[in-house]
Specification:
Elements lengths: L22 E7 L8 E8 L5 E2 L5 E7 L8 E12 L9 E4 L2 E3 L5 E3 L17 E10 L5 E11 L13 E5 L5 E4 L9 E4 L5 E4 L4 E8 L6 E11 L3 H19 L1
Antiparallel strand pairs: 1-4, 1-16, 2-3, 2-5, 5-6, 5-9, 7-8, 9-15, 10-13, 10-14, 10-16, 11-12, 11-15
Pfam families: PEP-CTERM (PF07589)
Protein name: Ice-binding protein C-terminal domain-containing protein
InterPro entries: Ice-binding_C
Length: about 250
């Protein structure tokens, strides 16, 4: 069996054929409070694309412009894990439930061990958080909802954090992943681009979508994420385009 602390390796991800982004919403974690294993919110979209939430734990900014999502609801759940798998075939799966530790800024960590509320690792576990889109109701199946970026704080601080502090973001549907080492990659705390992982579901879908797994050292926290909506290409259009391309190749070879 592979050592559970084997370093996570970034995987190259193929691009998804979609149209340009047509609306984005930023979710920011607010208010402190400990002890919850899951924290959820509903993003309610009105008939013009404005967004609201009744959650006391999150604030929203931005809007939706994809008409097929107007009047719909996007449910988002953050789930704390004391231990997430680092094995290739089960990368990001929760092995042991955790509980949130939220600091004075509202940033989300995992309680107590090993980094006093930050998300880290010790000899027997890799802490982390999974993200589910658990309610895409009233949204047309031709509309996709995708995670564009994840806001990570308390990471990559020169002189404060370890040089090799890292975290890995996993697509739980494909097991593709991206590993970030902020100091070595000249990155800083803030929104980390995960668009290449294609973390999306279409209207009517639901389920666990992404995991954020700690590297071997560190103690970062999660502030929130950015979602976008987009028009999903019709399979028939994509297929016809492909057939036309191969037909052109055949004519050139003739």
């Amino acid at each position: 069996m592979k050592n559970p602390l084997t370093p996570l390796v970034p995987v190259l991800v193929p691009a998804l054929l979609v149209s340009a982004a047509s609306g984005a919403v930023v979710i920011d974690s607010i208010n402190n409070g400990d002890g919850m294993s899951e924290i959820s919110l509903n993003i309610n979209i009105d008939g013009s694309g404005a967004v609201t939430t009744g959650s006391p734990w999150f604030a929203l900014s931005g809007s939706i412009t994809e008409a097929g999502a107007f009047g719909g609801t996007i449910g988002v759940t953050f789930d704390a894990a004391k231990n997430l798998s680092t094995l290739t075939s089960t990368l990001g799966d929760e092995l042991e439930e955790g509980y949130f530790d939220r600091d004075d800024n509202g940033y989300m960590g995992v309680q107590v061990d090993p980094n006093s509320g930050g998300i880290g690792a010790n000899a027997s576990n890799h802490e982390g958080v999974t993200i589910a889109l658990d309610e895409l109701t009233g949204i047309d199946p031709s509309v996709g909802v995708r995670i564009l970026s994840i806001n990570i704080q308390n990471v990559g601080r020169v002189g404060t954090d370890p040089v090799n502090e890292s975290f890995t973001v996993v697509n739980l549907l494909t097991r593709d992943s991206l590993t970030f080492i902020p100091v070595e990659q000249s990155l800083s705390a803030g929104s980390f681009d995960v668009s290449s992982l294609n973390l999306y579901l279409t209207g009517g879908g639901s389920g666990a979508l992404a995991a954020i797994v700690s590297g071997d050292v560190g103690g970062f926290r999660i502030d929130g994420l950015t979602l976008e909506t987009f028009a999903v290409p019709e399979p028939s259009v994509t297929l016809l385009g492909g057939l036309g391309f191969f037909g052109l190749l055949r004519r050139r070879r003739a």
